[in-house]
Amino acid sequence: AIQAQCEVRQWEQPGVPTLNQLGEWLQAAEGLLALPNIAVNAGLLAAAPKLRVIAQPAVGYDNIDIQACTDRKIPVANTPGVLVETTADLAFGLLLTAARRIHEGWAWVQAGKWPEAALPLGVDLYGKTLGIVGLGAIGAAVTRRARASGMKVIYNNRRQRSDDDLIGAEYCCFEELLATSDFIIVLTPLTLESRGLFAANEFARMKPTAYFINAARGAVVNTEALYNALVARQIAYAALDVTDPEPLPASHPLIKLPNILITPHIGSATRETRSRMALLAAENLLLGLAGKPLVTCVNNEVNYQ
Ligand SMILES: NC(=O)C1=CN([C@@H]2O[C@H](COP(=O)(O)OP(=O)(O)OC[C@H]3O[C@@H](n4cnc5c(N)ncnc54)[C@H](O)[C@@H]3O)[C@@H](O)[C@H]2O)C=CC1
Ligand SMILES: O=C(O)C(=O)CO
Fold this sequence. Notes:
Blueprint: H1 2-5, H2 19-28, E1 31-33, H3 42-46, E2 53-55, H4 66-71, E3 76-77, H5 84-100, H6 102-110, E4 129-133, H7 137-148, E5 152-156, H8 164-167, E6 170-171, H9 174-180, E7 183-186, H10 200-205, E8 211-214, H11 223-231, E9 237-240, H12 253-256, E10 260-262, H13 271-289
Parallel strand pairs: 1-2, 2-3, 4-5, 4-7, 5-6, 7-8, 8-9, 9-10
Helix pairs in contact: 5-7
Bound molecules: 1,4-dihydronicotinamide adenine dinucleotide and 3-hydroxypyruvic acid.
């Protein structure tokens, strides 16, 4: 769709391009389709004097300096909504896989340990408490899955949601959530406020039997503190779809731990959802280039009228 209407330059080499590598492209670019591993900051904007619209096929936009874009009157689009159920499946799937040791069981079968050795024992979901930090669109979809599995759901947001009764989750303060949850799923956007939200103090307050799941952004968690908490068995298990750093080098100590499960940021990675995200991003990009309002704009104050 984009190619039919625009001259497109697409970065196809492995790795993240530097500003120097993108120099000439940015100089000419009127629209930018950015991936979340690109830092769209004041430096990039300064190198792109003709830029009029930015569209990113992701709901999180922590890699983009929104204020700098707004100052330049550049509307920025993300892709909320279209990935909600898919990401909720992965977040809840991580919880279920870790709790029931599905991945460990498969590794045992592959290693020929079955049936002689005792199977890895998991824990039940039924009757347990799930604490969600950041109960937005994905958190609400996770709540439905958890309730269907017989779990009680509590949550912490900056403010209580007026519709939490309908969603089936009970508001509580952050401290209480840490102390009482059997499972914690993190689904906050990465912001100044949430960066490093889970550090040594927070892990120390969790139950020693707690399972910690992060499907938001790696930097919401202090990786070293999580590593220490898992080694010291301050918490029982972690399951992460996002890490800091990301990608996590194969030599990283976290990967060697017996009580962790990590997936490579695949929350929204299904054929159907990636296609919906790409189409929505393309639609926003073309609308912006035509000077029309974007459908899902992050900085509506500079959305085209
Ligand atoms: N692993 C993956 O592949 C994916 C990860 N994500 C991440 O999940 C995040 C959430 O996505 P949605 O649910 O669609 O967003 P959303 O905006 O609907 O929900 C986010 C919720 O977090 C709350 N929140 C914000 N700051 C908070 C804080 N400091 N403490 C507690 N709560 C806070 C908000 O009030 C809101 O209710 C995205 O920003 C993105 O970073 C999203 C999609 C896929
Ligand atoms: O949408 C996002 O924010 C992701 O992390 C990838 O889908």
